[in-house]
Amino acid sequence: MTESLAEARALLRTARTIVVLTGAGISAESGVPTFRGIDGLWKSFRAEDLATLEAFERDPRLVWEWYSWRRERIAACAPNAAHLALARFALTRGGVRIITQNVDGLHAEAARIAAGADVDAAQAMPLELHGSLFRDRCTSCAFHQDNRSGVDHTSLAALPRCERCGALLRPDVVWFGERLFPGDMEEAFEWAGRADVCLIIGTSGLVHPAASLGSATRDRGGAVIELNPEETPLTRSARVALRGRAAEIAPALLG
Ligand code: OAD
User: Fold this and answer.
1) Does residue 83 have an active-site annotation?
2) What spatial distance separates the first Cα and last Cα of the chain, rounded to whole Å?
3) Model-level pTM greater than 0.90?
């Protein structure tokens, strides 16, 4: 294992297929709080009270209060240099699939900015494994809707309801203990299992199945590149570990 930027760049240059897995760290410099670490959300809040189906069934008002707060906070954030470098990279060469655990929508926003009016942004659109903070979905039927605004969580009666069937709406995110959306895991592992490089940016590598994508690339003989200021459980399987902040290193790596 090395920490060589030049080696990482060479691996990317010669790769035909590249899968990029991102986590909360890539959005840290956009002002989006991470989950773990000194200022991480899970230092002040308990995941089991806020990010599980059981928590929502027990106290939907509390769960909506938390998601509404995050929605309002993150709606004010913009993609940083790492999101933009990655979007440009995916648009200018084929064979790149961005897979994110983030629900902040910043990869999609970066894809739209990088593509501009004349280019189709699709090639840089991420697979959002954990859903989106900016979508509601019905707890009973298939209804879902984009929603960037906060939610009235002052009482149970005020919580948003499905316009089709009247059941409670919930954030369209994947909570702990829930399955990923149908087809997403298959698509992610299909890409990772034929990628020459798996580039992993800003994730603690503790939440599966996302954390196993690098192994799928390694098992088929591909290389893992990690970009993270800290060592993680994924570091030991990395060919190159780049230590630093995403917004600083990603443009140098991908430009
Ligand atoms: P974490 O908060 O667990 O990890 C963030 C990672 O980003 C850490 O390894 C940091 O060292 C790194 N990091 C911090 N600042 C960085 C920067 N400027 N540049 C690059 N890296 C930086 O977030 P995730 O790994 O994304 O799931 O968490 C995975 C899942 O657990 C989330 O999707 C969420 C969470 O609980 C659910 O809510 C279901």
Assistant:
1) no
2) 23
3) yes
Q: Is 70 in the pocket of ligand 1 (CB under 6 A)?
A: no
Rounded distance, CA 18 to CA 143, Å?
Answer: 34
96-139 residue pLDDT tens:
999 999 999 999 999 999 999 999 999 999 999 999 999 999 99
How far apart are the CA of 144 and the centre of ligand 1, in A?
Answer: 27
Residue 247: give the domain boundaries: 1-32+78-130+179-255
Going from the Cα of 25 to the center of ligand 1, the distance in angstroms, rounded, reads 5
Kindly state whether residues 95 and 139 are assigned to the same domain.
no
Is residue 30 within 8 A of residue 83, CB to CB? The reply is yes
DSSP secondary structure of 167-185: PBEEEEEPPBTPPPPTTHH
The number of domains in the chain is 2
Q: Are 11 and 223 in contact (CB under 8 A)?
A: yes
Annotated active-site residue in 130, 144, 153, 208: 130
